[in-house]
Amino acid sequence: MVGRWIVAFAFFLHSYPLYRHAKNFAYNLLENAHSSYKKYFDYGMIALIFLSVYILIRQVKHEMSVEWLFFNNYIISLIFLVEYLMRLWVHSDNSQVVIDQYENDLFLHRPFSPSQAFKTIFKQKLEFVVSPPAVIDLLAIMPFFHELRMLRIFILFRVLKLFRYANSLRRLISILASKKFELLTLALFALIMIMVSSVLIYVMEANNPDSPINTLFEALYWSVVTIFTVGYGDMVPVTPEGRTVAMIIIISGIAVISFATSIIVSAFTEKLDEIKEEKMIDDVSKLGRFYLVCGYGALTNEVVHRLRKESKQIVVLEADGKKAKEAQDDGMYVLNFDSASLHTYSTIRIHFERQVIAVILLQDSDVANIYTALTIRELDKKVPLHSILHKPENRKKLSMAGIHEMVNPHELVGFMSKMISNQPVAFEVIHALRSERGGTVIEEMVLDSAMSKRFFELLLHPLFHQRLSMLGIYQRASETFAFNPQPSFEIQSGDIAIIVANRSLVEEFRNLLHRKTMK
Amino acid sequence: MMYRSAAVFGFNEYSRQIAYQVRNIYQDFALFVISEEEKKAAIQAGFLVEMFDLSEDWHGIEQKFDVKNLIVFCALPNDAENVFLTISLRATFDKLNIVALAQDNESAIKMKSAGANKVLPSLQLAANVISDMLEKPVVTKVLHDVLFEDSSLNVVEIEVTRHSSFVGKRLHEIHFKSQYDVILLAIVDHEMGTTFSFASKGHNHHIDAGDVLVVIGYQDKLNTLIDAVRRRHV
Which CATH number does the domain A423-518 belong to among 3.30.70.1450, 3.30.1250.10, 3.60.150.10, 2.60.120.620? Predict the structure, then answer.
């Protein structure tokens, strides 16, 4: 009976939108590093921590008002307590556990066992409670319960909470954690040395009336100060035996320090690539609109070079580490990931709709490009896909994979050869226009229906007449090109004029057109 | 100037496309291949082929073609061999019109110094088209239709004949847009050599016999213009 209620309640919670929404919000706020509002939450918590520490310091020599102390002891602690409970809440999903257990039992034709479900829930929650960050969180709340002077030190645990809110600090911990074994070994070595030397020095010195080391604690203090090469000199061994111990511990102290340094440095060098990659992903996710190029090679290099001239941002995806390195040396945004894997896109967090102007597939084979195209189509149906076409017979397959435009270099060379044969001068002219040699360019100009009259008037303006050729207007709606249209031509918004002229003249024309239209 | 015969060297994806596109333009067309494999593939694709090797002396070509009227396309897959082929041809034939294919800009420069009249750097061309496609999609589409597809909109070169009614006129006196419904893109000044200048530079050029007008327009309108240019001056 109780079991049935529990299951019913679990199902209710599981499907109750408000509850789901609240939990999701809490998760984003606390744990989801990529959510937009976590940042502000983190800043708020950091501010509270610093405030707390400030009050602690201020209290030492000054009288603090009751309100401040109340704020410090209760309000901040309460906020931290709420945070702790929320973290405990979002750590695992109880209703899910109950439902899983219920379905499992149902499947095995067993009666539902609430105790098993509670055991799992307890285990999952315990997992959170004993994790080091959670322990720190709990300690940071402690001043709430006691106002004992000693317990004020627990406020310093609040400082340790900073690790939760600062990404770079978390990264530092994870780097050091990768060398856990080495660091532990070293710590053990240092610990044994300290123990042995403090006992030895105590035995050698404690009974000597000239020696400043009289207690075991003093011996321990002396050992720690010596082994870590600080050596205050406030206590020094006076017996020859004690000094022998000192010599040994000084030498081992240098070993401890140098080993520790080298372990930490090597941890950083090993993780350097990872850090760089994370930084790159971070940078890319902050970019505005960019072209996503899949595959790096000589062609990519050329395309990127051209697009950069138009001051466009480009991000390159390349699975091959060596090629990715080359691209990086060329100063591009490069992510060393396989563009054909869905996993890649969840890792690199590219937002297709918001960020990607178009995807350009320039991998070495049609097979790879089709595979990548289908992967991207899975994620986004609309983003324009452009591709190189290696074999003309694959044209249809590429188009079936959702690729809008493709370029076959072989056909292109064929066409160009034909043109060189038929109209060599015209070929040169068009080529010069496209490569923008000699300052004359062929440009697109988006028009507005309100511009109609002004547009044709301006074309006859002495500044532009004979010097600026308008080839025609491409009509968006009908997708047709009206060559050399008459002034009576009616321009629709979104139509595009093609203009041949000197670059600065085109700019001037554009400016005048917009200015006059605005008036 | 139109050439009467064409020769393509090498047989691969590039030369296959070149051969397809140009073989009907010329009266004589020949495909030269370097290896038995290429020969087999070319025959299979329906071409008549002849063998050559890089150490050969080239006087066979002289017997087969009128070199002054010949254009050759060097399209060997290896850039180094292609440079060698270009330089061998240039060493033998002073006046031959050589179009050479290069993979990238670096080889393109070498082809030029080896004496090619025109170099097609395939990588750059593809990159240009891709970036134009992205940045100027409409221009790319319209130009592609005009240049490569059989649309009614075309670009032509018209040479001004000696007795043309255009001789002696100034560019601004001819109303290409309103009278002929075509657009003048560029003009090659006979006196200035072979380089062209864009009509949009605004020079009020004096038209001489031998100048070439590069004009874009619908074929029927272009024909009207061509007739007008060729019409004898009265």
Answer: 3.30.70.1450
